[in-house]
Write a structure and sequence with these properties.
- The structure is a single chain.
- The longest helix is centred in the C-terminal third of the chain and has 23 residues, at about 360-385.
- Helix 5 crosses helix 7 (about 190-210) and helix 9 packs antiparallel against helix 10 (about 295-310).
- Helix content is about 50%, strand content about 20%.
- By secondary structure, it is of the alpha+beta class.
- The model has no long low-confidence stretch (mean pLDDT about 95).
Length: about 450
Amino acid sequence: MAPIVSGFSKLSKADKIKWLAEHHFDNDVTATNTLITYWNSDDQLQRLHDEFTENTISNYYLPFSVAPNFLINGKRYTIPMTIEESSVVAAASKAAKFWQTRGGFKAKVLSAIKVGQVHFTYTGNVEKLNQFFNKTQDILIASASHITKNMEKRGGGVKEIELRDKTSEISNYYQLHCTFETADAMGANFINSCLEQFAKTLVSEAKEYSGFTETEKNIEIIMSILSNYVPECLVRASVSCSVNELPNTTQLSAKQYAKKFVRAVNIAEIEPYRAVTHNKGIMNGIDAVVLATGNDFRAIEAGAHAYASRNGKYTSLTHAEIKNNIFTFSIEIPLALGTVGGLTNLHPLVKLALQLLGKPNAKKLMEITAVAGLAQNFAAINSLITTGIQRGHMKMHLMNILNQFEATEIEKVQLIKYFKTNTVTHSDVATQIEKLRK
């Protein structure tokens, strides 16, 4: 068991690694060398990475890939994707290629409102609190003017502050439910700064309010924090074509394909066990773009899954229908994204990713990201209702398995050729490697 360490964050990177080697890696030189191998040879770039977070000892690399051929609102895009799962980029690219000759993807931001809340307790007459809030609302907004000034110049700012009574759920519990427009920034720091100012002003104004008794003046702030549930920061993306333009094979006619596809989505709409995996596939595409563009994929994940449960039951984020012989596949999803602030101005690959997309504003990035999720889901359902998911996935996974067996370049060439006509399984790869090596 490693001893308790004090002042670890103040140690140099080399000393941090030395401590880890001594107490966790049994002074294994291989472990130490692995950490050092992933340092960037450019000292300035490495320092930049070291300062992104705390206690940095190395870099953790993920593949930075691109998916070409996306036609979105009449404009072509090559979409950057940062993800380790082998089949995701290939699937997105395949879906993009399919839809580019069928009108491409349509996308539209429906709303870009974000939410933050001041949570507080108040013991007193609720009518008095309402009267106090009505008199104080403008003062609260004005008190944050030094924070909102620059955001307002860019078209953002505080939209509304609402007092919400939650005492039926927790005694004496109330909220200031605040909505914001943050222009091209994701806006977390902006929102949290505003909320903390609102909280401070709420407390100070309550102490001076003559309509309160001395007890009622003691409003207690519990916390002030933005919400990652943003059902009003919403984007819609869709594809549509004549049923006759859908895949037509000896196994399925275009009409049968369309009906089977819609039924597959219907199942995800009513069956939570399927819906979770269905939506996970959507997030494969979305998270990859979010990560590549320096946004917070954990926040996006949390908000998306909350939105999928908004009606009391977890359901699909995508929908499909056939109407008047037209097949339509669509997604509605909350995406609080930014193209300024955070890593967007710091991480060289994030800058490159945004440049690749034509330096989009936040709303344009919302559209592109939603399209990536829709494309990913289309590709997954297409595989599920035709060949099955494993055939394509395992072919993409083949190289990972070969690397696990430390296959030589000659062995890789021979085995890739073999598995062009044979189903890839881990056990069969092992068998074929053994045969070659004998």
